[in-house]
Amino acid sequence: AKDYLVPVFAFFVGIIIAEMIKSRFRENTALHWRQIVVLIEFAVLVAAAFMPQSCNTAVNALISFVCSLQVESFRKVKGNPFATTMCTGNLRSATEHLYNYHKNRDRAALENSGRYFLVIALFTAGAGAGALASKLFHLRAVLFAAALLLTAAIIMAKTPASPRA
User: Fold this and answer.
1) Under 8 Å between Cβ of 141 and 130
2) Is residue 10 classed as helix, strand or coil in its secondary structure?
3) What does the DSSP 8-state code read for residue 159?
4) Mean pLDDT in order along the chain per 10 residues (165 residues)
5) Nearest CA to 33 among 42, 43, 23?
């Protein structure tokens, strides 16, 4: 039972930590609070990559923790709610917007549908790349995700954002 409860608890803790970071650093103009979250995700994934296979429960908890930080911190794109760690809700939203476009010829609905389908396509490509990396690099494959997070943090540092976002 602990193998199942530990990752759930880690997810719970991650949500709280993401909210604490947002609350504490929301007005910070030097470093956006989401950059802090991404850097924490990066560090946790790097640590997980070097843990022995005998620590699978701990690694699962760390991955669950990273997922909760991601889910809580990155919820919207251009005002629309998005899920960054799963795609079923995105597929529902994409299809709903596509239907609304066909029903009402609302151009904004078509654009929103396209955004959702793009996120789904990127999610799928990432899953495929992750599967390939896992076959090639085994336990160290998570370092590719860490590298993407570090890249995102660098891009975020170069792109000004509203501190209240």
Assistant:
1) yes
2) helix
3) S
4) 89 97 91 95 97 93 96 89 87 96 96 95 94 94 95 88 53
5) 23
Helix axes 88-104, 107-137, angle to 10 degrees: 150
Residue by residue, DSSP assigns 90-153 as HHHHHHHHHHHHHHH--HHHHHHHHHHHHHHHHHHHHHHHHHHHHHHHGGGGHHHHHHHHHHHH
d(CA 65, CA 152): 18
- Measured distance CA(98)–CA(104) in Å, rounded: 10
Taking the C-alpha atoms of residue 11 and residue 40, their distance in angstroms, rounded to an integer, is 14
Q: Map 13-77 to HEC letters.
A: HHHHHHHHHHHHHCCCCCCCHHHHHHHHHHHHHHHHHCCCHHHHHHHHHHHHHHHHHHHHHCCEE
Q: Of 57, 70, 64, which is closest to residue 11 (Cα–Cα)?
A: 64
The pLDDT of residue 161 is: 61
Helix (H, G, I), strand (E, B) or coil at 81: strand
Say what the pTM is: 0.86
Angle at 83 between CA 151 and CA 105, to 5 degrees: 110
